[in-house]
Amino acid sequence: MQTPARPRVLVYIPxxxxxxxxxxxxxxxxxxxxxxMRLCTTRFVAAAEGDPPGLANWAGFEVERLPPRRLYARLxxxxxxxxxxxxxxxxxxxxxxxxxxxxxxxQLEFAVREMMRRFGRRxxxxxxxxxxSQKACASRGIADRYLAVSDYVGVxxxxxxxxxxxxxxxxxxxxxxxxxxxxxxEAALAKARLGVDPDxxxxxxxxxxxxxxxxxxxxxxxxRLLKNPAPLLVLAIGADPERPTGxxxxxxxxxxxxxxxxxxxxxxxxxxxQSDLAKLYRAIDVxxxxxxxxxxxxxxxxxxxAGCITIxxxxxxxxETITDGVTGLLLDDPRDTDALYETTAHVLAxxxxxxxxxxxxxxxxxxxxxxxxxxxxxxxxxNSILA
Length: 387
Fold this sequence. Notes:
This protein has helices at residues 25-36, 70-77, 89-97, 112-119, 151-159, 184-193, 215-225, 250-262, 274-281, 298-305, 337-349, 355-369, 371-386; strands at residues 8-13, 41-47, 54-58, 61-66, 102-105, 125-129, 145-148, 167-169, 202-206, 233-237, 266-269, 286-289, 309-313, 329-331. It has 387 residues and is of the alpha/beta class. It has two domains: 8-173 and 370-386, Glycogen Phosphorylase B (Rossmann fold); 184-369, Glycogen Phosphorylase B (Rossmann fold, 3-Layer(aba) Sandwich). It has an eight-stranded mixed beta sheet with strand order 3-4-2-1-5-6-7-8, with helices on both faces. The chain has a six-stranded parallel beta sheet with strand order 11-10-9-12-13-14, with helices on both faces.
């Protein structure tokens, strides 16, 4: 008896690489889901970024890396997104060379109608909404499903004109076997690598160093904290803005970074692969993420899984993940530097008292936010679309 062929899923990440090297959520999400698929075959079409364009293999998956499209990149920076240009020529060629059974596009503005016209026949399309920046547009066509990373995103999509009956929430997750609480000896070793003793608290910002992520607010609070004589190391981990001119707080943040670096107790670090980031979390006691807008918040999930005390803002999809006072701490106004300073200073002064919160955050992540939970739901969605 012949075994039924496994469904072939083509995962399209036009603005991110496989594997991810800069902490880009769509790339991380796509890779983590693919590793956990049991009933389908996944291949990727992604941006080449720092890798050579062409066919490659990553972790047993076929990856087609597309060369950069400079004209399209310039238009996107200007906020211009022509419908036809959202489809890279290499993506269409890849579809025709090895026709998939389903397309999973990590791009809200994916041109469904144009894709079908050029491909020559109808294919099921799932559009993954990591952000809510694009209103529904008739000229793009309608996908079979819109995958929202939180209920907040799902509601926002419906308000923006996407068909409510095609929107489904499947949350991003975390590898709870990679992001784990450190043992005392692991924490001591991780802190020693940073040049501090085991009793020195480590406070961190993790994520893109953009205004919308609350980076200027974090730096302002860090500056106040470091004026205190109590031991403290502050880390800022993540990518710098690609377009500094688009960040109103960029120059002020750079100046503040220089002043903080002079203290010897502040370090700015680049974005790093998940494996390296997880090791760094072993040294971190508290993360502060005062985002002004957040579809879901992968950083918060990783922090919780690592057993850190997570201080964030009550915005977007974050309250769906963090229960204030139970699995983390939420502030009503991410721009309120006084409230953020007072909360952070209290946590740092009374770290042992927050041990139950750390344990509850870890337990919640393991039960509800492990990638295996979300991957099972995604594969069931694939099967329902293809049935």
